[in-house]
Design brief:
By secondary structure, the chain is of the alpha/beta class. It has 7 helices and 10 strands. The protein folds into 2 domains: about 160 residues, P-loop containing nucleotide triphosphate hydrolases (Rossmann fold, 3-Layer(aba) Sandwich), CATH 3.40.50.300; about 70 residues, no CATH class. The longest helix is centred in the middle third of the chain and has 17 residues. The protein starts with a strand and ends in a 17-residue tail after the last helix.
Length: about 260
């Protein structure tokens, strides 16, 4: 579905953030990308989204080079970035109207996806009236309504309290079961990766960005208190502890050496 071919990304005259990275993402798979701050996680996501170009190498989506953003890739950011002057319903309708759907059809589709994320009762509310978790549900509905081939998520629940974060993780898996798509999910949180992912990619600072590639075979949803879940989180933490620098990874041992 997505292929990185010998990708290098350098900002200005500084050292490369990504260096000769080759990587693939399978269709309809949920992949979490885990690693310390500064290892290139968000750069990887922005390259897939088409928000930036690599310094060298190619990013391919279904065999075609990624040159710019497109409706086949939807992005959910850490902040919900809703239009504050629009109702919940109009926020979700906005992209649909841009795609040419008429008023009746865009309203029907928007209501369908608001129902999917449990936000239909708040359809007429303004974003300021919503909690952080509710705003993220609307942001997810707005993206899913466009039916993207790839859903890119950049730490979308990191600003929420622990209970809200776990509840939205549960709901995200239900949404992905109802609307299968390819998900690339950036996170600092070990427990989050162990709960959500079918595959965890652990990144490290360049030049060896791909530190570990770990498939998770246990069925989802997973019980957070189970022995298997504890085993997986222990495995991920052990891999992170092998990195030269683990600062910025929730649940991992911090170290200062590089």
């Amino acid at each position: 579905m997505i292929e990185f071919r010998q990708i290098t990304k350098q900002y200005g005259n500084g050292p490369a953030t990504l260096q000769q990275l080759s990587l693939t993402f399978a269709e309809h798979r949920f992949t979490c990308v885990l690693g310390p701050s500064g290892c290139g996680k968000s750069t990887l996501l922005n390259l897939i989204a088409g928000f930036m170009a690599p310094s060298s190498g190619q990013v391919l989506l279904q065999g075609q080079p990624v040159r710019k953003p497109g409706p086949d890739r939807g992005v959910v950011f850490q902040d919900a970035t809703l239009f504050p002057w629009m109702s919940v319903l109009d926020n979700v309708r906005f992209g649909l109207r841009q795609q040419g759907l008429d008023n009746n059809r865009s309203t029907a589709v928007a209501r369908e996806y608001l129902a999917l994320v449990g936000m239909l009762p708040q359809a007429d509310a303004l974003p300021i009236r919503l909690s952080g978790g509710m705003r993220q549900r609307v942001a997810i509905a707005r993206i899913l309504a466009l039916r993207p081939k790839v859903l890119l998520m950049d730490e979308p629940f990191s600003a929420l309290d622990a209970n809200s974060r776990e509840r939205l993780q549960d709901e995200l898996l239900s949404i992905c079961a109802a609307c299968p798509t390819t998900v690339v999910y950036i996170t600092h949180n070990v427990d989050e990766a162990a709960f959500l992912a079918e595959r965890v990619i652990i990144m490290a600072p360049a030049p060896n960005n791909l530190h570990a590639d770990i498939p998770l075979s246990s069925p989802r949803p997973r019980l957070r208190s189970s022995q298997e879940f504890c085993r997986v989180t222990g495995q991920l933490r052990a891999e992170l502890d092998r990195l030269p620098c683990c600062i910025g990874v929730s649940g991992a041992k911090e170290c200062l050496g590089r």
